[in-house]
Write a structure and sequence with these properties.
This is Formate dehydrogenase. It comes from Haematobacter genomosp. 1. InterPro entries: Formate_DH_dsu (IPR021074). By secondary structure, this protein is mainly α. It is built from four helices and no strands. The chain has one domain. Helix 1 packs antiparallel against helix 2. The longest helix is centred in the first third of the chain and has 17 residues. It is globular. The termini are far apart.
């Protein structure tokens, strides 16, 4: 895993750790909202790709739960 990929996984997991303090019904949507609002499209795209690769095993369960709500960049929507 590249340093960039490691950083993305670490950042997503840090957000998840914070969101895990929220009520369960708010945690995943809060995590997805944060990533949608503050991560640039390339970062979101790479996170979504990493989640499908073996490196995705390093993502916390809450990150994986939030993946369907994370927006794909416009160029990737089909």
């Amino acid at each position: 895993m590249s340093n960039t990929d490691e950083r993305l996984v670490r950042m997503a997991n840090q957000i998840a750790l914070f969101m895990e303090t929220k009520p369960p019904e708010e945690a995943a949507i809060g995590l997805a909202s944060h990533i949608n609002d503050y991560w640039e499209p390339r970062m979101r795209s790479r996170l979504l790709t990493l989640a499908k690769e073996p490196e995705g095993d390093a993502l916390r369960a809450l990150v994986r739960e939030a993946l369907p709500a994370i927006r794909k960049p416009a160029a990737e929507r089909v």
